[in-house]
Amino acid sequence: MISVHYNCEDSRLNKIGKGTHMNRILKYAWYQLIVILVATLFGIVSLAVIAVYWRGKEFSALIPLGLFASVHLFKVFFPLKPGEIAFDERDETIMRKATRLSFTITWYLFAAGGLIPILIIGNGSIHVMYYGWLVFFAAILFRIIWSISAIVQYRRGSVIAHNEQVEGGVA
User: 76, 95, 121, 156: which is deepest, by most CB within 10 A?
Assistant: First the structure.
């Protein structure tokens, strides 16, 4: 049995759950992903309950989805500690790649979501609320894709940094 041991103070080796320091951007990506998934689940359950028990009464369907606003409370729950670096060049590159990927995927899905009903209905009319919900779900999709992309890039970077250190570095 081969066992590999390494001693590293590098914060790039983000071993979640192992007691090491998690990068701030990675922490934000996890926080955002969890909040959006919980808010989506809460919104779906709330809308189902509203549809069953509040039939015929005035109620905004967006009220249960207000939980999505808690994504912006990251700085309240995880304040920047004195001496802590918010992000470096590697983090900036990861954020840029995640933003580009999520924008590209969201744009194509948004365009398809806007054109497919027109192609199916033809000359018929599409309710304007459809496009409002399309924009809303495109924004949620953008954040989900951004979070997953950032998490995957950090994981990939952790594996690459770990392999370089175990193998003796780049030649």
Answer: 95
Integer Cα distance of 91 and 150 in angstroms: 9
The SS3 call for residue 16 is coil
Cα separation, 8 vs 169, in Å, equals 13
pLDDT of residue 147: 93
How many CB atoms lie under 10 A from the CB of residue 98?
Answer: 22
User: Nearest Cα to 110, choosing from 83, 89, 140, 87?
Assistant: 140
List pLDDT tens digits, range 55-78. Answer: 656 556 566 667 777 777 777 777
Q: Are 147 and 33 in contact (CB under 8 A)?
A: yes
Choose among 112, 109, 120: nearest CA to 144.
109
Alpha helices in the chain (DSSP H): 24-53, 74-77, 89-121, 128-166
pTM score = 0.68
Between the alpha carbon of residue 6 and those of residues 59, 65, 91, 138, the distances in Å are 58, 46, 24, 43
